[in-house]
UniProtKB/TrEMBL annotation:
Gene3D superfamilies according to UniProt: P-loop containing nucleotide triphosphate hydrolases
PROSITE patterns, per the entry: ABC_TRANSPORTER_1, ABC_TRANSPORTER_2
Protein name stated in the entry: ATP-binding cassette domain-containing protein
GO MF: ATP binding
Residue intervals of the ABC transporter domain: 20-261
The keyword rRNA-binding belongs to this UniProt entry's keyword annotation: no
A Pfam family per the record: oligo_HPY
Family of the protein in this entry: Belongs to the ABC transporter superfamily.
Source organism (scientific name): Variovorax ginsengisoli
InterPro entries, sorted: AAA+_ATPase (IPR003593), ABC_transp_ATP-bind (IPR050319), ABC_transporter-like_ATP-bd (IPR003439), ABC_transporter-like_CS (IPR017871), Oligopep_ABC_C (IPR013563), P-loop_NTPase (IPR027417)
Keyword Transport: yes
Length: 278
């Protein structure tokens, strides 16, 4: 990864305002909060960018805007140099196909009435135009790639699976579109501690095999140290520090990053989750 690696996704001065919620859930008239406040950033092909910050700092809102799931209030998002607000045709299709998501909530992100095979097949038919027979072959290959025996899992429903197995399905579904970038929003924090390392290892093996870029939203600074090339620290909607992951974790410059690191020691054994990055 270097300056010559093409930029996939870029945000320029991106903001999102929400009405401020008063106690009791009612909105206070005209009072707006900048959940994301003029954030500029970019992700290169094959790069792992970790997005960290305490709860409410705007990480999910930024991730959702980059995915096209939440509309920005201000600013621009470029995918492969094209403005996603105005692109159309093949450029718009390639953005929808190549930028995928893995959610935290493994239960809610899969349709409970669709079999695992059907859920993974959908992007194959939508995005890649495969017919039913070709999609079935590819579904099996994807399930095996994420460590699920296809013959055993393809006809099951989500509720028959464990949280870790469901997250493997979520990853298979994201991979089905042949993505260039996956936005992973706390993908293991809802899982049992015992399966977190397995899912993280799977994600990072796939990242290396497929040269995927990840925007990895996490609270876990151990994961950042083990896996990220770069890290971006958010506080109250703004990016307060960003840079090479080792440099930021070893010598944070911003006082907020220093406090975050002091509050959550970074365990070195997490390096065993994935091969060390060069
Ligand atoms: N749909 C919404 N309507 C109103 N306010 C919202 C909405 N979504 C997010 N917010 C507010 O925007 C701020 C940022 O929230 P966001 O979920 O992006 O933070 P986060 O860093 O991802 O937090 P967490 O780690 O808890 O998920 C919060 O104050 C939140 O209450």
């Amino acid at each position: 990864m270097n300056e010559a690696t093409p930029v996939l996704l870029e945000a320029r001065e991106l903001s999102r305002l929400f009405p401020v919620r008063a106690s009791g859930g009612l909105f206070r008239a005209r009072q707006m909060q900048r959940a994301v406040d003029r954030v500029s950033m970019s992700i290169r092909a094959g790069e792992v960018l970790a997005l960290v910050g305490e709860s409410g700092s705007g990480k999910t809102t930024l991730g959702r805007m980059l995915l096209g799931l939440t509309a920005p209030s201000e600013g621009t998002i470029l995918y492969k140099g094209m403005d996603v607000a105005t692109h159309s045709g093949e450029a718009a299709r390639s953005f929808r196909r190549e930028v995928q998501v893995v959610f935290q909530d493994t239960g809610g992100s899969l349709n409970p009435r669709r079999t695992i095979g059907q859920s993974v097949a959908l992007p194959l038919t939508w995005h890649r135009g495969l017919d039913a027979r070709a999609a079935a072959v590819e579904v099996d290959a994807l399930l095996e790639q994420v460590g699920l025996a296809a013959a055993h899992f393809r006809h099951r429903l989500p509720h028959e699976l464990s949280g870790g197995q469901r997250q493997r399905v979520g990853i298979a579904r994201a991979l089905a579109s042949n993505p260039a970038l996956i936005v992973a929003d706390e993908p293991v924090s809802a899982l049992d501690v015992s399966v977190r390392a397995q899912i993280l290892k799977l994600m990072f093996d796939l990242q290396r095999e497929r040269q995927l870029a990840y925007l990895f939203i996490t609270h876990d600074l151990g994961v950042v140290r083990a896996m990220a090339d770069r890290v971006m620290v958010m506080h109250q909607g703004r990016v307060v520090e960003s840079g090479d992951a080792d440099a930021v974790l070893n010598a944070p410059r911003d006082p907020y990053t220093q406090r975050l690191l002091a509050a959550t020691p970074v365990p070195d054994p997490s390096r065993q989750l994935a091969p060390q990055r060069s």
